[in-house]
């Protein structure tokens, strides 16, 4: 925890003065203004190509801040996209079945195979009686018989191939192809998301308070490249005694002013500490119990941007009977 000593040095006299001259001036507590800041960095190790902002630049939410790259990003993305396209095409082809041209070719092959089988069967039928009479040698008959069996096998294979083409791929194969296509598409989407992550954009509107990278530098994953402050959302942490604490609640409105300025700025209590800070070792006496202080965070909505980080601000506290 960072302990700010400046507000506490100022707070002691203010609490004492508040008790001594309660009727002349309201009790105050002093804090130091801070700004809500957002650090933006790459989600993976990367090298900065271009830094598009300077410190002090005003940015809007969505503005591009830094462009990063990795050595294999372009090639890996292209390969993943090519695999996704091929897998999707294969899945669509299986889902839609064979094209008319493929069916026509299979039918033509079947007709040719049937013709060869019929011709071989006719040759066998013609030679078998001759072989029985001894007019044809046994070797010639065996050759014709073997050719007939081969032709019949080719006919049957062509008939089965046509049936498979007409029926289409089995359900299991179609599901497997569809799953493979989804996986390839997810991989491609992942690489595209990685490429998008290497383009740092401003998550909020504000002012660039710190530029932490230059072109050519390599940052680790999560390392801050740009810090964006929100001047319209300043806040301060004040410390109040245990006697003031019961009068304060989260959401309460408080007024505050800068040194030498009579303008009142409206603030809202966003958080109250649940335990005392700067507690004495043993709190027994009234004075020691008065030293118990509790942190209170006060947020301001400042459209004028007059409240700047590091400036002390005095917060007016409700009056107490103590």
TrEMBL record:
Question: Does the entry feature the keyword Coiled coil, yes or no?
Answer: yes
Q: Which domain of life is it from?
A: Bacteria
Enumerate the InterPro entries for this protein: UPF0194_transport
Cleavable signal peptide = 1-25
Species of origin reads: Gemmatimonas groenlandica
The answer on whether this UniProt entry bears the keyword Signal reads yes
Q: What is this protein called?
A: HlyD family efflux transporter periplasmic adaptor subunit
UniProt-annotated location(s):
Cell envelope
* Alphabetized UniProt keyword annotations: Coiled coil, Signal
GO CC, sorted alphabetically, is: cell envelope
